[in-house]
Design a protein that fits this description.
Blueprint: H1 3-11, H2 15-28, H3 46-59, H4 67-70, H5 74-92, H6 102-115, E1 121-124, E2 126-131, E3 152-159, E4 165-173, H7 178-184, H8 189-192, E5 201-203, E6 206-208, E7 212-214, E8 225-226
Parallel strand pairs: 1-7, 7-8
Antiparallel strand pairs: 2-3, 3-4, 5-6
Helix pairs in contact: 2-5, 3-5
């Protein structure tokens, strides 16, 4: 198997993206810069700390599991994970971890109208189940649903055509359904707080202030949801 495919399978990302992330966190956070400790021993390299962090994120392993492969204590592994997430949120948050602006909404709607034929659509909203292979026995029942048969963690996401994940709500119990996830999600908080950008449009004379999402049949009948026809008929 080519090394690029092995790297992507192990780290769940492309090697180029990994190298860019390593450069960013090293530049923005002094914790990842290699230095000597009080005994004069050279500490872990930035690649060791970032690799250990991504293994925790990609596989859900505990910090003390890195001792055998990296010779890294649980404290260093835990601190690496903490500073990595904190740095990425501070550095990349303003660009990637944000709600769409008015201009973003216009671009999203223009793309869906031209490519898919759905006017004023913001995107498709759905949930997926991420298998939790190392789920502790204590939580097995809470995260297991009958139609899956194994523990899962639910991710609710909305992704644009250029792979910008502008909404992600992760961590819900795998035993609940999409409606329960929606009730816990933060996707409509900006609408509740009246901070959502205005994207008014009309359908057959009825005005709507915000765009809509395509969803499946389990979702409630909200003005921001459009469901497919269960038995469509052509003209």
């Amino acid at each position: 198997m080519p090394l690029t495919k092995v790297f992507r399978r192990r780290f769940r990302m492309l090697k180029g993206l990994f190298e860019r992330i390593v450069d960013d966190v090293t530049r923005e956070c002094s914790f990842f810069q290699q230095r000597y400790d009080t005994r004069g021993t050279l500490g872990f390299t930035l690649l060791q700390k970032c690799t250990g962090t991504l293994r925790q994120l990609a596989y859900g392993i505990p910090p003390d599991a890195l001792d055998e492969s990296f010779r890294m204590s649980a404290r260093i592994a835990r601190d690496s994970l903490h500073f990595f997430c904190k740095t990425m949120i501070q550095f990349s948050g303003p660009k990637y971890l944000r709600k769409p602006t008015r201009n973003d909404i216009l671009q999203l709607q223009a793309h869906h109208a031209s490519v898919h034929g759905f006017l004023e659509m913001l995107g498709s909203l759905d949930c997926l189940h991420w298998a939790w292979e190392n789920c502790p026995t204590t939580y097995y029942g809470q995260f297991t649903r009958g139609d899956h048969g194994h523990p899962t963690v639910i991710l609710e996401a909305v992704v644009s055509q250029d792979m910008w994940i502008w909404h992600a709500f992760f961590g819900s119990l795998g035993s609940i359904n999409d409606i329960n996830v929606l009730n816990r999600s933060l996707i409509f908080n900006n609408i509740y707080d009246r901070f959502a950008p205005d994207s008014s449009f009309q359908v057959r004379g009825t005005p709507y202030k915000y765009g809509y999402y395509l969803v499946d049949g389990i979702y409630p009948k909200y003005a921001v949801f459009v469901k497919p026809f269960s038995a469509p008929h052509g003209s």
